[in-house]
Amino acid sequence: MWLADQIRAIGLQPAGDDGTYFQWFNLQRTRLAKSSTLRIGTHQVKLDVDGVVTAPTNATVNAPLVFVGSGSAAELAKVDVKGKAVAVQISGAPTDGISYRRYVFGKFSGQTTDLVKAGAVAVVFISDAPSQALYDHWSHIYERGRYSLPGAASTKVVSSPPVIWLPASAAIWAQQAGQQLTADLKVESFLYPSVNIVAKVPGTDAQLKKENVLFSTHQDHDGVRAPIAGDSIYNGADDNATGCAALLAIMRAFKQQPARRTALFVYHGAEERGLIGSTYYAAKPTVPQASIVAVLNAEMMGRNAPDSAALLGSIAPHLNSSDLVKTALAANQAGPKFKLDTEWDKATHPEGWYFRSDHLPYARLGIPAVMYTSWLHVDYHTPKDEPSRINYSKLTRMTNWMYLTGWAVANRTAPPAREPGFKLER
């Protein structure tokens, strides 16, 4: 509502549903019910406090717990895991260029699959020292459950062996022999609303105003979560209040001087829950989908080195419009002259950053799309992502770069050409 009030004050036309600034859509949320219980030996594990279940599942388990070390083939050969709950010590490090986070989460998936095939009825992962930092930073994401659009495969309530993640402090008792694991896990699933905020500055050209240059960002973050160093408010100043501020500034510029094409502004909801708002808008836009000639996405634009930035979608296989990228590069040279880091856009980059923001659903449809970012930092998805840590001069220059690109696209006669044979690696 605050953003809509700001947009109204700037003077933009509403471009949502029914003459409003809003496009409402439902989220499907699937999570463990609060009545779910877990006990290991004499330890009552308070879920989302003393440990987490990594995927919502209906499960009733009463089985002996066996510890298999790191779960290597040699260690598993010594143990019959059929009908048992299996405890595994997280260990090792990635050797193939992926991030440590993806390495650990990959172990959850890969080792669980192998153990369940061997007959395990539950899998318990115990953090080691390196993965404890990961547990501290990321385990809270499981408390909220899973989100998706209604009808998506991830909303299906399943009954499968539970996967449990414990902190390193649990190693003392979770590895003890002769313990029983008992769990009674129940899943609940329900709908509630989220929203995209949509506004426009109509173009001035009789024909080109039917086409839209879409300025994209997301207006959600993580809200109130598990405390870190006594602070439970995840402010999201860089992720993504910087993008929200950038779009307001670009709106003011287009309102003052409209372009030939229409400038369309979309604040996507539920990006942090899996690009849900942008997935919904890309599939059901409030303008004809074919009228969207380019998407310029703002994602985290106010941190790291003041002279450096990144343009994602600028190199193959993420490049879906050389034409749009050339325009963006020219705008950079005409404006802020950032040193551009292309590492974050490579398919081999461990963070897979290209796949984690709102340009992606549009790119998958073949719409020319790029993302402006100053990339990740140590305060990412922590309560320390606060306004005092933003480099406002850099944010201004990032915004100017995005505006200059959009202004050029909105005024040229031909829309940005699409890359022939474009295909993402995943």
UniProtKB/TrEMBL annotation:
Domain of life: Bacteria
Signal peptide limits: none
Gene3D superfamilies tied to this protein: 3.50.30.30, Zn peptidases
Domain spans labelled Peptidase M28: 196-401
SUPFAM superfamilies tied to this protein: PA domain, Zn-dependent exopeptidases
Pfam family, one: Peptidase_M28
PANTHER family per UniProt: METALLOPEPTIDASE M28 FAMILY MEMBER (PTHR12147), PEPTIDASE M28 DOMAIN-CONTAINING PROTEIN (PTHR12147:SF26)
Protein name in UniProt: M28 family peptidase
Organism of this sequence: Hymenobacter humi
